[in-house]
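Ticket 4471: requesting a sanity check on a complex prediction with pyridoxal-5'-phosphate. Repro inputs:
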Amino acid sequence: MDLNLAHPGLADPEYYVPGLPADWVTERYGIPADEVAKLGSAENPFGPSPKAMDAVRDAIARMHMYAPWTAEPLREALAAKYGYQPEDFVCGSGETEVIALIIRAFAEPGGKVLMTRPCFPMYHLFAEAEDRRPVYIDTPDMTVDVDAYVDAIEPDTRIVFVTNPHSPSGTWLSEADVRRIVEAAPHALVALDEAYVHYSDTPGYIHLAREYDNLIVLRTFSKAFGLAGLRLGFGVANPDIARPLLAVKPTWNVGRLQIEAGVAALADDEHVDRTVAAILEGKAHVTKRFAELDRFRLVPGTMSNFMLIEILDPDTDSTRVFDGLLERGVIVKDGSVSFRGLEKRYLRSDINLPHRMDHLVDALADLP
Ligand SMILES: Cc1ncc(COP(=O)(O)O)c(C=O)c1O
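Returned structure tokens:
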């Protein structure tokens, strides 16, 4: 059957390629799931915030009631934590949903959406699915070139995505550089994606949304808070930006369990601090261990809980390395599959606990 009722942007849809689950390796290679180094999804090695787990247990008895459609208790908690008003926030079922809402609300069909290449694929996947037009700033050396960003902003650019720490490289932009991009696009909405900001061990630039009317700062509960499977994220901007987002948002997009877990997780600094400390320790460890490898190198400068691995050996490529690592119980991301513009020379691996990093380095050293 060849029934094409969807709009033209969906003639040949492309989907996000998530990191593989541990069970996949267990089924294929018989390696027990708890021995698999799952390094393809940037999840929290310590699991969910314990406070969030308690909040979910408590909220279960109220599941029969609709939650406030704006996720108000969470907006209030976010406002108190970050020094804003509740109406400055829009909450989503993951930050991914907020990204989709931004594309729908701030670019018309055909409208230009600017992003780096490679970047977090949801920016171009959603833009294309909504018939908007991705425009790319190529970053072949894997660092974000702010001059190129500024040059690429055109009078008809509608949305500018900036990811900090960047994905997939984890590299970091200074506040002055972020300001330059925001100030170069007064006619467009700049979406500053701070999904991984905790791992930079800085407060990030969430304060800039108070200063710039054309800026929305995006964050997730999936990473340092450990709630990837629950689905919760948010954007903060002035209410003129937040209001249209509420209008395109599916009304009860965030449920009661998410709201109550989010409020609890926000108050759980201990869990976040412990997670960040472990990732920083893992980063120091893996950086040291990579010195043992001569066929691979780490792309320097990551401020995130992942890193890019560059293949120096001309006789192999990212897909062969990816497959070889799977056989050895290590899941990473094959750059050529997971990121447009990354080609066959790179893999992205999470930074995780030191013993998981040993597993990765030992497996790389063992590849034929
Ligand atoms: C750069 C970036 N932004 C946003 C997200 C979205 O996270 P979530 O939808 O789980 O909140 C991710 C997830 O991997 C990401 O890598």
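Notes from triage: Residues 42, 94-96, 120, 163, 167, 193, 195, 220, 222, 228, 233 surround pyridoxal-5'-phosphate (CB under 6 Å). Leaving this open until the requester confirms.
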